[in-house]
Amino acid sequence: TSTFSLQVVTMNDITLLCFFFLLHQWCAGSITPPETEIKPYVRLQSVAPSGGKHRSMLVCSVFDFYPKLIKVSWTRDGQEVTSDVTSTDELADGDWYYQIHSHLEYTPRSGQKISCVVEHASLKEPLVTDWDPSMPESERNKIAIGASGLILGLILSLAGFIYYKTKCVYLFILHVVLLLHINRNCLFLV
């Protein structure tokens, strides 16, 4: 007879196994840094200021680049901005790629052009990402879905109302016809 035993594997066990596997692969030389420079991906977004501040905050996030050395700066109407800028250090992703985040506090002004400028060894020229103050795509999608639901609801309500009213009219006509028919038959009996 054989016995079957079910052993519970916890997340800590899996994490530990992954760690030792990766350590073994690294020591064996299987995991090596990329041989080429990897171009960064840039995302520029506005975040709500915390603590009730009145100034706005832009965040320029730069992801998945290699090697580590990178320069992230800001321009306002073509002029480099150095005040009200804070940046993280280059953060390792654990897969030889890096990321960095730069924050710019600013007071929005009409017609102002703000850009995040990224300089990296993988780029022939600086990568300039302009801030577009229009509504983000995710917000536009939420509004479009909400408006579509509202319109569909109104159409269904109108269709139900029309059905109810026409049903009532047909019932009324049917009652009148039946009453006339009954009354006509009753007149012949007298």
TrEMBL record:
Q: Transmembrane residues, as ranges?
A: 143-163, 169-189
**Region forming the signal peptide:** 1-28
Instruction: Name the InterPro entries for this protein.
Output: Ig-like_dom (IPR007110), Ig-like_dom_sf (IPR036179), Ig-like_fold (IPR013783), Ig_C1-set (IPR003597), MHC/Immunoglobulin (IPR050160)
Record domain Ig-like: where? 34-129
Q: Which UniProt keywords apply?
A: Membrane, Signal, Transmembrane, Transmembrane helix
Respond yes or no to whether keyword Signal is given for this record: yes
Question: Magnesium among the record's keywords?
Answer: no
Q: Which SUPFAM superfamilies match?
A: Immunoglobulin (SSF48726)
Q: What is this protein called?
A: Ig-like domain-containing protein
